[in-house]
Amino acid sequence: MSPVEQILALDVGTKRVGIARASALAKLPEPLMTVNVSEAFSAIEKLVQTQPVAAIVIGLPRNLEGQDTAQTASVRQWAKKLKTKFDIPLYLQDEALTSKAAETSKVGRSSGIDALAAAIILEDFFNTPKEQRQSA
């Protein structure tokens, strides 16, 4: 029996990247880890090498009106670089207020606020109809 594919989610910040995962079948996001931005590609590469990854979802920061910010442009560049490194479907998911929700949550704190935010991003992705998902 082959292992179930995972979907990874990333909350990319200026200093840290939160990483979460969920089974593509069960769709129950779990915070995995928080790493420094400089270590993120290496951490993602290890995950991709050790488990089948069906897709990667990256949180896309926007302001409360849904408009792009300076951080949005930075994350889009980061996604572009990630896309050249891995041959895995990549999606962008609006991450409005996920960090605030992670800060107020009492669950999953041991892996870090950023990883918890990534799990919330992944949950939002699963709740988005497939035809409305945004490919990177």
Layout of helices and strands:
Elements: E1 6-12, E2 16-23, E3 30-36, H1 37-50, E4 53-60, H2 70-85, E5 90-94, H3 98-104, H4 113-127, E6 134-135
Parallel strand pairs: 1-4, 4-5
Antiparallel strand pairs: 1-2, 2-3, 5-6
What does this 3D model show about the protein?
- The chain is of the alpha/beta class and 136 residues long.
- The protein is 38% helix and 27% strand.
- The chain is built from four helices and six strands; from the N terminus they run βββαβαβααβ.
- A six-stranded mixed beta sheet has the order 3-2-1-4-5-6, with helices on both faces.
- Helix 3 crosses helix 4.
- The N and C termini lie far apart (31 Å).
- The mean pLDDT is 87.
Helix content: 25-40%
Between the first and last Cα atoms, what is the distance in angstroms?
31 Å
> Major sheet, described briefly?
6 strands, mixed
Mean pLDDT, rounded to whole units? 87
Secondary-structure content class: alpha/beta
- Which overall shape is indicated by the principal axes computed on the Cα atoms? globular
How many individual β-strands?
Answer: 6
Name the helix and strand elements from N-terminus to C-terminus, one letter apiece. EEEHEHEHHE
User: How do the strands of the widest beta sheet line up side by side?
Assistant: 3-2-1-4-5-6
Total helices: the number is 4
